[in-house]
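Hi U.,

Before I forget, here's the chain from the pilot set. I'm dumping it here mostly so it's searchable later in email.
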Amino acid sequence: MHFDFGTYAPFLFAPLIVLMLYRRLRSHFGQQPIRVRRMTTRLVIFSMIACAMLSSVLQDVRLGEGAAGGLILGAALGLVGLRFTRFGRNEAGDTYTPNPWIGGALSMLLIGRLIWRFAALAPVFAGAEHAAQVHGPAPGNSPLTMLVIGLNIGYYIAYLAGVLLRHRQHRLAASAA
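Structure:
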């Protein structure tokens, strides 16, 4: 009996993906602790991903345009989200409460796009050789996918940077007082 990893890979990774999506959605609701190191690490990682996305212009200009457009729109949305964020303090330390609608909508948009892409790639995962003849070549990256991913990454870069900056300003003002 032959085990074809490519056929079963999506099903093997599905629980991990569901857990990651759950944690992502949960972070948009309620008071969140400000963890400077963790947030700074995420900011650096998202910035590196953004640079890698922008390098996609070397592969296809349309992909680069989708990525750049998403990053710009996402950064603008991150600044809007920052305006609706409430900052506070509890017994555990400094906290922030993000606007659940903006982060939730972005997450749903990303999840929807990933489901759409997974459905488009399902024949390829199943090893259907005739799928390329029926559906055309296996879909690679698309400008729309790059836009949606860029939107999320741009949002988090601007949002995390803004939260860290406001937290720092609040700390400096508190120490001066």
